[in-house]
């Protein structure tokens, strides 16, 4: 069984923002880099947890877009499916995974005074229903 992933427009925007602009200060670039590391770590944690604990029903496959908001303390503040897979069971498996994988690590000092972080990702459930988050 192989985890599958797909790129999202949101990730492309994040990558573009992380590239920075000519007028950026080192602190803002460092903060964006810390946020990108946090999102990468979050993605791996959710994907690993979901593949171990909340695999979707084996007869279904599909793709959905989910949005989560994580507070500075690592607590999940919000989780919602913003674009359904068309299968309630898959959508619920994604939400169960996000809730079950928490709490997440608190923000580190490199993330500045950021109060919360919103992460939007496309998840694809594939054959065997392991999933990838991107």
TrEMBL record:
<dbReference type="InterPro" id="IPR037682">
    <property type="entry name" value="TonB_C"/>
</dbReference>
<dbReference type="Pfam" id="PF03544">
    <property type="entry name" value="TonB_C"/>
</dbReference>
<dbReference type="GO" id="GO:0016020">
    <property type="term" value="C:membrane"/>
</dbReference>
<dbReference type="GO" id="GO:0055085">
    <property type="term" value="P:transmembrane transport"/>
</dbReference>
<keyword id="KW-1133">Transmembrane helix</keyword>
<keyword id="KW-0812">Transmembrane</keyword>
<keyword id="KW-0472">Membrane</keyword>
<protein>
    <submittedName>
        <fullName>TonB family protein</fullName>
    </submittedName>
</protein>
<feature type="domain" description="TonB C-terminal">
    <location>
        <begin position="60"/>
        <end position="125"/>
    </location>
</feature>
<dbReference type="InterPro" id="IPR006260">
    <property type="entry name" value="TonB/TolA_C"/>
</dbReference>
